[in-house]
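Structural prep section.
Before we set up the soaks we want a predicted structure of the protein with pyridoxal-5'-phosphate in place, mainly to decide which crystallisation condition to try first. Input record follows.
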Amino acid sequence: MTVADNVRDVAERISRAAARAGRRVEDIKLVAITKTVDIDMIREAIEAGVRVFGENYLQEARGKIAAIGHGVEWHMTGHLQRNKARDAVNLFDMVQTVDSLELAQELDKRAKSADKVILGLIEINIGGEGSKNGIGEDELIPLLDSIKVMNNLTIQGLMTIPPYFDDIEKVRPYFKRLRDLRDAANNEGYSLKELSMGMSHDFEVAVEEGATMVRIGTAIFGERR
Ligand SMILES: *Cc1c(COP(=O)(O)O)cnc(C)c1O
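Run finished without errors. Recording the tokens verbatim:
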């Protein structure tokens, strides 16, 4: 299987999951996760039609983004330290892992200096696992309230990495929970559209539960080194 075959296969599975849920496939973005993936393979994915890429480490992203450029979208999908906010603003279109007020403030400030608007998703620790990043569910509305006044950081939705289960049906309630949280925020007057949830092993369930972005690494590029 080539990268192009894999992209076709994943796109087909997204489209069947969307159909099962009565959703439009245009409302679901494939974000190819390229940590440890080399530039040639990223180019193959672009050839196959992928337009959005996610990187987890700034150090690694820098060279790849320099080589490939901004004809495609780049998202930061790994944990971001506050002292790296300036680099992140320069490199990425979106930071999917906004997980504190301090990071949000720093992104807003650095984006203002760069005269741009950085897009963000709030990362939620939906399973409440100690080992995972992200804010607790109760912290969402207070954080959104604080970010609302910022002019150079625009929050477009929520992101989560749920607990891992071999049985993907066990993940479904966590995806539902993220959607409910978004809908609850929208009932409070926000207009969050995006739900970034679902990875190689469970993206079809995520699409059935309303994912607007699925983050796929292994199913496109193979097992990571
Ligand atoms: C690595 C990673 C993915 C992709 O995982 P796969 O199982 O390889 O599809 C998705 N999201 C985040 C945040 C990741 O770090």
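Observations: The chain has one domain: 3-221.
Flagged for discussion at group meeting.
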